[in-house]
Amino acid sequence: MPKSSNTSRLIVIEGLDGSGKATQAGLLAESLTAAGTPVRRISFPDYAHKSSIPVQMYLNGEIGSLEEVNVYAASTFYSIDRYISYQTDWSRDCKEGRLILADRYTTSNACHQMVKLPQKEWDGYLDWLADLEYTRMGLPEPGLVIYLDMDPNTSRRLLEKRYGGDESRKDLHEANLFYLLSCRGAALYAAEHWGWKVIRCCDGSDPYPPEQIHQAVLAEAEAWLSCQHPAESDGF
Ligand SMILES: Cc1cn([C@H]2C[C@H](O)[C@@H](COP(=O)(O)OP(=O)(O)O)O2)c(=O)[nH]c1=O
């Protein structure tokens, strides 16, 4: 696990496309807020901001195919989006020690970009990524990463529902099943390497009910929070 000097009260919900990250981030935010710990929510890519334009061009296939776009270049498009978001939006909350909850973060590059490299280059990629975002750019390093481990075939079925069978609405990543299947291997590798908490989200091909997954997510968050110093604004 990279432990830079700027580890923060930042919880990341990570998972493949269609794994239920937004649902779980919403449920976790509700539960923590109800228990007296207000949460600042963020999400990446930051589509509402022009910082994500290179990411949007990449996902639309405007820069090249999945194989053509250099892994380090593609990763950097996302890193820049995060840096701009941090600087212009949530750095103050973070420095004041508020609890931040992110739907995707640097960790998504480890799942979705690293996989395009041969496995013998994965350790080098993870070191490069942590150095770029946490050390050089000074982005906060998450204190807790929860990986929602959904079988890629199941998440693909959930994505199909989201798009109602319209293939043209899928982005560069979602359109490639082999790629999505491979991402799980990269994600589990990164989870082991960086010490993420992995929560199994399906039994064979059937997803567990969101409330059941939420209880597991909440237990991890509460266990981690109990070891943290609360911010004064949390009302403790
Ligand atoms: C945030 C982030 C996302 N990604 C990938 C994951 C997704 O395949 C894609 C778009 O993310 P996202 O918008 O979460 O997917 P969707 O809304 O279509 O479900 O970008 C990275 O490769 N690196 C990153 O840092």
TrEMBL record:
<keyword id="KW-0808">Transferase</keyword>
<protein>
    <recommendedName>
        <fullName>Thymidylate kinase</fullName>
    </recommendedName>
</protein>
<keyword id="KW-0547">Nucleotide-binding</keyword>
<dbReference type="GO" id="GO:0016301">
    <property type="term" value="F:kinase activity"/>
</dbReference>
<dbReference type="InterPro" id="IPR027417">
    <property type="entry name" value="P-loop_NTPase"/>
</dbReference>
<keyword id="KW-0067">ATP-binding</keyword>
<comment type="similarity">
    <text>Belongs to the thymidylate kinase family.</text>
</comment>
<keyword id="KW-0418">Kinase</keyword>
<dbReference type="InterPro" id="IPR039430">
    <property type="entry name" value="Thymidylate_kin-like_dom"/>
</dbReference>
<feature type="domain" description="Thymidylate kinase-like">
    <location>
        <begin position="13"/>
        <end position="164"/>
    </location>
</feature>
<dbReference type="Pfam" id="PF02223">
    <property type="entry name" value="Thymidylate_kin"/>
</dbReference>
